[in-house]
Design goal:
With about 230 residues, the protein is α/β, with parallel strands linked by helices. Helix content is about 45%, strand content about 20%. Bound molecules: S-adenosylmethionine (SAM).
């Protein structure tokens, strides 16, 4: 049942939090994407899904943006999910070990009032099918925020990605975890993934309406984005 990606996160995910804490923009940018869902007030009465929740960083961002919402957080890596569950959470947050491609089979049913998919889509073997499944889980009009690396075609941005991976991310991954496989996979998967226009087109093709992108700041400005779309109104 595990994908190449979830198996890598099971192996290399033990020190995930240590590594992301060295990137000051990581949590700030997830918080931006959670707020960009544009959901009202404190979220009272809303049901949200955090798909590919990992160690819970994106779940925390959702909870802080919408503290009164109930959140279902799903991940396919038992080890990442165990780290998430170990953190303090209110009773409104529940974690489910499941493959994002088979959520209804795991008892995760819509309709949700909003979905955050942070660094997930790039890891799915069939991102189109993944997007269609997420669309089906949303209530009409409700938003999806895809938060991920998506490199523009420009050489300068691709060179920046190579430089960051080979001088910082991969050496740090090897130093902290003793195994850089997860971080080499990150480097490669981002290079192979969609450019921003390709990803917005992919979301439209899957059936999302009002598809748009929003930028980050700092060194990730051209590399990481929020891609937003809504299930069309009924
Ligand atoms: C880079 S982590 C991001 C975690 C979290 N969203 C965050 O922002 O910190 C990506 C997560 O996606 C999960 N993942 C990848 N493919 C998956 C799949 N098919 N089903 C469920 N989870 C998956 C991995 O196990 C991993 O925990």
């Amino acid at each position: 049942m595990s994908t190449e990606a979830t198996a890598l996160f099971d192996r290399g995910g033990r020190d995930y939090d240590t590594l992301v804490s060295a990137n000051p923009g990581y949590h700030r940018d997830l918080a931006r994407s959670a707020r960009r869902l544009g959901l009202p007030g404190g979220g009272r009465g809303l049901r949200l899904l955090d798909v590919g929740c990992g160690t819970g960083a994106s779940t925390r961002a959702l909870h802080e943006a919408l503290p009164e919402a109930s959140i279902t957080a799903v991940d396919g890596s038992a080890r990442m999910l165990a780290r998430a569950r170990d953190k303090p959470w209110p009773a409104t947050v529940r974690f489910v070990h499941a493959d994002a491609r088979r959520l209804p089979e795991a008892g995760v049913h819509g309709p949700f009032d909003g979905i955050l998919a942070a660094y997930l889509l790039r890891n799915l073997p069939d991102p189109d099918a993944g997007l269609r499944l997420l669309l089906d889980l949303l209530r009409p009009g409700a938003p999806l925020a895809v938060h991920d690396y998506s490199l523009p075609r420009r050489n300068a941005d691709r060179l920046l990605w190579h430089a960051i991976c080979w001088t910082v991310i991969i050496p740090a991954g090897r130093y902290v975890t003793g195994d850089a496989a997860l971080y080499r996979y990150l480097w490669r998967s981002v290079l192979e993934f969609d450019t921003p226009p390709q990803l917005t087109e992919r979301m439209r093709r899957a059936g999302f309406a009002r598809v748009r992108t929003a930028a980050m700041s700092g060194w990730q400005r051209t590399l990481t984005h929020t891609f937003l779309g809504n299930r069309p109104d009924a």
